[in-house]
User: Fold this.
Amino acid sequence: MSHQNLETLDAEAIREEFPILQREFDGQQVVYLDNAATTQTPEPVIDAMSDYYREYNANVHRGIHHLSQEASIAYEEAHDRVAEFIGAAGREEVIFTKNTTEAENLVAYSWGLNELGPGDEVVLTEMEHHASLVTWQQIGKRTGADVKYIRIDEDGRLDMDHARELITDDTAMLSAVHVSNTLGTVNPVSELVDIAHDHDALAFIDGAQAVPNRPVDVEAIDADFYAFSGHKMAGPTGIGALYGKQHLLEAMQPYLYGGGMIRKVTFEDSTWDDLPWKFEPGTPQIAEAVGLVAAIDWLEDIGMERIRTHEEEIARYAYERLEAEDDVEIYGPEPGPDRGGLVGFNLEGVHAHDLASIMNDHAVAIRAGDHCTQPLHDKLGVSASARASFYVYNTREEVDKLIAALDDARELFA
Ligand code: PMP
Assistant:
């Protein structure tokens, strides 16, 4: 199906491409509002992976036979496609990982463990996901580097004055989330990267919640590293990508070793293959890379700008409906260009887990918990929050179902 001829994004038509969205529980069609955790998979992506297993499944690294040749080309070219999608110069700058978390760890281990020491500082934000927060915290403990956090203000935006204060010549790395998975805040990442560069620090941007739903150009942002996951962008689980500037990746040591990443091995020593293979040891995620390419093709056919607008509109609608309820507290900024497509909230007197359970009785899938941002929840003064997160296929009617289910939760728990 081509989406090109549609003026605006037609979520109803798009839903048809997702078999899972047709599922019913107790006679109710699933309302899937847990997209910040994982998005659903459209038929073209499922078909691409199925074709791979039916037609050209083989190990890569350019075996001599036809099947390996075909698989190798598909796998290698997947790097080119991702590079093009995020505005990287070429495949040398795109390393496939398991997910965003592994991309963070790759930089933390390969760069952080070797480059950081006492006196160095790593600056994060208070809204970091554990993927970066826990990782840099541990690297800090092992290297003696200090970890500092840019404050958020009352509206859930970064305090940029504090950012300018905190990032100094002692800063070696800034790691910031592009879009917060808890607050929905879209951070001014180019500005943060500029501040870091003014002090000769590197900048890592966690794009797990940004690449799926807006145009992202890593060169325009000027990030040194940028990471995202396939399973949050209509693609498969098990694959993510790390973008890194070529000269930085070239200077870094791999932290995972084995076959497929070497040039020459003797009993005494080894040398590494070119980028990106140097960082991709062992049999990689071949089917998943094929699926990721299909997902990118599918998303671009709709148009990243249209996806962004749709998410912003649905999030605005959800925000306004929730805000109209006196007993609902919403986290993060007001609707607008600096709020992404999710709304975190709590219903007074009802634990987020109970709320999610009531929602589930209505086949409304939301997430409840700390969303891998425990320190941020401490700061908000709550142990958990409920989160409704949207994607291309969500509609206003689905938001209405979420709102309708609030009454049940009040009756049972409040
Ligand atoms: N960063 C952010 C902002 C996220 O939302 C997530 C997923 N919740 C991650 C990192 C980690 O992604 P993954 O689990 O795919 O590694």
